[in-house]
Amino acid sequence: MDLAHFLDTFFRPDLIRSSIPLIGKGMLITIQIAVAVVITGFALGFALAILRARGMRAINALIIVFVDVLRALPPLVPVLLIYFGLPGLGINLSSFAVLWLVLSLVLAAFVEEIVWAGILSVRKGQWDAARSTGLGFLPMLTHVILPQAVRLTIPPLTNRTIAITKNTALGTVIGVGEILNQATTAVSFSGNATPLMVGAVAYLIIFIPVVMLGGWIERRFAWKRA
Amino acid sequence: MPLEGTAAPILDVRRLVKSYGTVQVLRSVDLAVRPSELVFVIGPSGSGKSTLLRCCNRLEEPDSGQIIVDGSDMLAASTDLAAMRLKIGMVFQSFNLSPHMTALGNVTLALRKVLRLARAEADDRGRAALDRVGLADKTGAYPSELSGGQQQRVAIARCLALEPKIVLFDEPTSALDPELVGSVLAVMRDLKVQGMTMVVVSHEMRFARDAADRVIFMDKGVIVEQGTPAAIFGAPQEERTRAFVAEIMR
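The joint structure predicted for all components is written out below.
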């Protein structure tokens, strides 16, 4: 294999040029889904962790089932299940909506588990002190417990966020026009891997800043323990 | 021993019972604390001292009995627990300051979130409380920047800012290096002079001798004996008290 052959397979200039607009469109969609998933996934995950901290047995059992099922399943399975199953029930969601919904639920499951572990790691005395000054459940959680819990969980939360948002690539199987979908389409037209390479670069453009942001947040919120 | 004085007790505990599983930690404890009284509770570990304090503001739920604070039934279903807890301050062995908040932030949290004071007013009250414990210059310090003694004084200020009727101290100096104990005891002594009602679980016998109005000896979940410091330390009546006092005075 010589260099020219290699370049011709992965970096054909005309294909780079022609795939950039498509991949750009895919990037927009990938970013949209990723942002939507992060917002709803974190909101739901935090809400579930807070609910679990209330300690109501029946509800906690449901939360644990939800979390364990979604953490155990490969995300592609619920994506396909919902995309092909819901129309049978008369519910028609766009492929974009299905991908957003499933990834949000998966992220929520992981966020709940991580935040819950963080909540458990906060020393019992912190709860005692908050309760002894008359704080109610929500102010106690939001002002005393969660700020401590979350700082401990920022590394796993950022790792998981990156892992789940990269799963936007699963959208390609149900026809969401995100990066990978655009790239594979272009590949099938050209019979050359160059559009996939452009897609790979597009992922790096999106996710390297996310990885760096995660590192910055970890340093920013690190604090000395008393 | 009958109580002297006629003022209605600030804290009135009657026939308090608490078990963990099959272990009875408190077996019908009665305790009445009058205004401005400093009651010292001593006893071997596992005697139920801390549990008694923690039941008084319902950090632990007692199994049965009565707890009256400032005339209100602490255990009634209709009790506004948050409002009642404002009347009973609690100081913990491990300070339990929140590490992500400054001294002033720790002291003002309940002022803002429970009493719903505006930030400026809460800050004023918080600064005044920190001033009372000699930490006016540490308002902006985080717990990690303070010594153990300073942290415990911030925790005391956190109580005082809420203007409680009574403060419960659960081994307030046990986690401190010996040279830092004095500063905390000095603050407690000031409070005593200012007329604060206090119940103190502690092993600081010298302080008990100097400052306590009454010393209670607990063992195995019951109050074995109580009296003036001179009576309990000098001439204990019960064998168990004698043995304990002899042990700690060695």
